Amino acid sequence: MSTLLIVAPAVNSRLRHWLSDEDDARRAAQDRLRICVERFERAGFTVERRVGDRDPVQAIGDSLALVDADAVVVATPPSERPFPLEYARDCFALPIVHVVIEPEVLHAAA
Q1: Whole-Å CA distances, 105 to 8, 62, 101
Q2: Where in the sequence is the domain holding 46, given as residue range(s)?
């Protein structure tokens, strides 16, 4: 059976990262992860889940070291920086999908 890995990077500001103030970022990542997992499981996927590093590519790599997956979904908040999707696909040679979870979706699901 195929396994889908859903990764939610704990996106944080550089200052908060360096101050080791990651509680809010990890909480927001958990919320994004919960929403994605619920939707993919309802669609019949076997899912593994991980909150990861604030760098999405690093988060994927760290997660794949722990989980044998056939495909990856990366759930991020909206960002002005583009997600390096093609780079991630080249690094890991797996199907990778980027999903942006809007803040309105988080609030509606709460």
Answers
A1: 15, 27, 7
A2: 3-109
- Domain harbouring 31, CATH code: 3.40.50
Cβ-Cβ contacts under 8 Å for 103 (sequence gap 6 or more): 77, 78
Q: 3-state DSSP: the chain helix, strand, coil percent, rounded to 5?
A: 45, 25, 35
Q: Which tens digit of pLDDT belongs to each residue from 51-78?
A: 999 889 999 999 999 999 999 999 998 8
For residue 96, what are the contacts with CB-CB under 8 A and spacing of at least 6? 60, 71, 72, 73, 74, 85, 88, 89
* Predicted structure pTM score: 0.84
How many structural domains comprise the chain?
1
Strand boundaries in the chain, DSSP class E = 3-9, 46-52, 71-76, 96-100
Question: Do 75 and 26 meet the contact criterion of CB atoms below 8 Å apart?
Answer: no
